[in-house]
């Protein structure tokens, strides 16, 4: 018995020594990086730091009766004071920022606000509107603005939120966030209030308006967005170009995830601006500019910058270059005179991102290489790369070498392969990835890149980015038509739960007088309206829009709402639970 115990102990001791020697001998033991890098101590590129002066918080008076509020939110809000009332251009991104501006404007004039012009649908121009409605003003926007606003607020709200937070760095704390390229900080966190707006006056191509003796021409000028409006005040030769020009390289493609902006439309808008020969230019981001000659040369440089990358991108694409090669070629030959122009510094968009956007605009995702037609899954590809190199330790060593030789981008790419392969030594890779991101953030002149790198570090450290329930609800419950509201559900169908089955539901809304059928078939929810849809329904619900919004957002249980008398359900309440189970609305 005693001999057996000794034998087992010796064997275990031997195994322990062998394991210890193995660990000593392996690179994974020797290369144990310390987590010394963090998003909190990353120096800012000196040019980007200097650019922050552009957003110093103040009210800039122009002429006698125009005031530009800069630095209160991401965009500018503008007050134009007429004889007996005022006009506001844009309302910032949240109630808190808008209220500060409103207060500052009240100190200038107590005249009522009779018109609010929203230059385009982006939240930083529109979501603070609730603070400007006291005097029941006309709310003026392009005829398509509401449609674009609802896309952001509804069917792609989740991803728009998380990517927007990364691009603008809104979740970065004190000392981490420098600026957002075209403004200070986007104030759109979980604690900020906001409101979706409904235009009361819409613009198609051009509209002349007069308030308080001031006549403005509101002109549709698609560029940075399709619904962009610029405002021309002929009497004073003041042009409000909205976001078609700012003191930063044009964001032809926004990394938060947008369609590439059509460069030719944007150039046309800038040409239109030139033709007006403005003497004062007041954009919705960055500072006003005055002087006819100065404005002309600035707009010319801006339009030429866009035309250059557009034309050169096509030149290289036509020669068969792929997306990355095209971007590289265009960046290499971008003229120095444009590169050094203060309005074309890459604080926001960049030459390469814009060029890649143009590549996608014309050719879509396929770069022409047959290997990209049926790509391996991310997991399979990364596991195969690990095998080709030898093993995870060998690849990890390559990441360390890349880091030590200052090839931070390559180190980052290797880290992603290791993380995607599911290697168990994740913390070591994470540490190297964080160090790569810190180094790249320090080198970045683009605020968007810096913010994205640093927010990714916070994610690697455990932060989760997702909109809070009140933010989602505030957006979708702001949708006016119930048909629009149902689109929120349509993009959340779970085809596995529906399987091969079919389901037809009818919703009658007593307050909005809408009758909506939802047909579930082939993994799709198809919306139909009207009463001429005569197939037999599996479920009929009669209710009000507010009750249904609470049920659909999972705020109120359908059975509870039914018991409270807010819903009439045929043939029985559990059918509504079945219907709801076909949608993933978990937050
Ligand atoms: Zn903007």
From TrEMBL:
Would I find Nuclease among this entry's keywords? no
Cite the entry's keywords alphabetically: Hydrolase, Membrane, Metal-binding, Transmembrane, Transmembrane helix, Zinc
Per its UniProt record, what InterPro entries does this chain match?
Alkyl/aryl-sulf_dimr_sf, Alkyl_sulf_C, Alkyl_sulf_dimr, Bact_Alkyl/Aryl-Sulfatase, Bds1/SdsA1_MBL-fold, Metallo-B-lactamas, RibonucZ/Hydroxyglut_hydro, SCP2_sterol-bd_dom_sf
Please indicate if the UniProt record lists DNA repair as a keyword: no
A Pfam family per the record: Lactamase_B
What are this entry's molecular-function GO terms?
linear primary-alkylsulfatase activity; metal ion binding; protein dimerization activity
CDD domains cross-referenced by the UniProt entry = arylsulfatase_Sdsa1-like_MBL-fold
User: SUPFAM superfamilies annotated for this entry?
Assistant: Metallo-hydrolase/oxidoreductase, SCP-like
Annotated transmembrane regions = 6-24
Show where the Metallo-beta-lactamase domain sits.
Answer: 74-285
**Alphabetized SMART domains for the sequence:** Lactamase_B
Question: What is the similarity comment for this entry?
Answer: Belongs to the metallo-beta-lactamase superfamily. Type III sulfatase family.
- What name goes with this protein? Metallo-beta-lactamase domain-containing protein
